User: What shape does this take?
Amino acid sequence: MTRSARDTALHERFLALGRDGLFQALSDTSSIEDGCRRLARLAHASEDLGVFLSIIAAAGLAVPILRRGASAHAEQLLEDALAGRAVLAVAITERGAGSDVAAIRTTLTRAADGSLRLDGSKWHITNAPACDAMIVFAVDATTDDRWLTAVVVYADDPGVRVGPELSLIGCKGSPTGEIWFDDVRVPEGRVLGRAREGRALLDLAFVRERILAPWPLIGKMERVIEDCLDHVEEREQFGRPIHEFQYVQDKIVSSFEELVYARHLAERALGAVARGAPQAGLASLAKAAAADAAVVTFRFAIEVFGAHGVQAERRYGDYLQDALCAQIAGGTRETHKKVVFGELRLERARARHRIAPRRAGSTLLRGEGAPARTEDAPARTEDTIHG
Ligand SMILES: Cc1cc2nc3c(=O)[nH]c(=O)nc-3n(C[C@H](O)[C@H](O)[C@H](O)COP(=O)(O)OP(=O)(O)OC[C@H]3O[C@@H](n4cnc5c(N)ncnc54)[C@H](O)[C@@H]3O)c2cc1C
Assistant: This one.
């Protein structure tokens, strides 16, 4: 397959990040905190915020799925992904199925010759136009309950067609596209995870993606607030530096407040994963808060800089559009609120039935200090609550 100059640039960037050990750092629980801080520093220094969605799709979604997928095929692909040799996409969304994952129509069936076949299409998939391989989530019609199953598909597999890059308002550094599957033969070794494990793989990857997603935004927010603080010292209007005007101060302080809130949640969500006690609710809050904070910060920065803020070379307009895309990519705010509310209800139900939290220190409502198990609340399995 011949690659465009932009695709080649993305592959070279992935190789460089692989050589620097970023993908490896982000994939290991012991180094994930360091990896996320590196993501923030990279974004702080980079002109291109939009490319980070590509990195997060690979490191946050694809790598955790391959790690858990446990097959010889997954192991080889994982090795290539960690080294940055392979650019990967994860395809869940379809034109008719976005927030509602249960509406997925792409289907895995068993043909008369016994082979697995994939049919359907995926839409709005990061890295699709440039990827070497993709992890596709499909309804598994080979099981009675039509569970979700994840399979590895290569961009040059017969029957796979990848459309041209979609034209988005932001995240232009992360090529996004559509893919069609027409009777694609899927060797058994490319099925990831155990039977009926697709949804669990997805949930695992969602948490990883959501704890990584805030960090590039945080790094860029820090940089933009620093720029604003420098600008208001130098820029004079009405014979005075504009830092003296309280309306201007308010924009910077409000941006800082958003940043502190976003960083606090991102740290807590990341800390939970690093301790081996991931919390989906915290990860959702962190992702949604960082994207919202970035929209506020980049918009205020444009205002603080006035006409200088809307100059294309300053890139603040691009960052704002990147942040608007980040609000939707990886699930909208409403989806994240649903996750948080679901987790709070479950936690309360456990407390009512005196069932210990799933993991030590994993209480969302009362924070990390909550006891893992009380004397009068003996541990029972998660299934107990559902009878
Ligand atoms: C830049 C970008 C990159 C992406 N990359 C990928 C990728 O790599 N892989 C992939 O699989 N997908 C990807 N997506 C798709 C993304 O996951 C979906 O866009 C997202 O889940 C929302 O789905 P939707 O766009 O179909 O919106 P819809 O689901 O149609 O939602 C439309 C509106 O309705 C609201 N809504 C929907 N349901 C409810 C509800 N029950 N309660 C309240 N409000 C609701 C939503 O919050 C939203 O405001 C990407 C999206 C973007 C923008």
Q: What stands out?
A: The chain has three domains: 5-88, 89-194, 213-337.
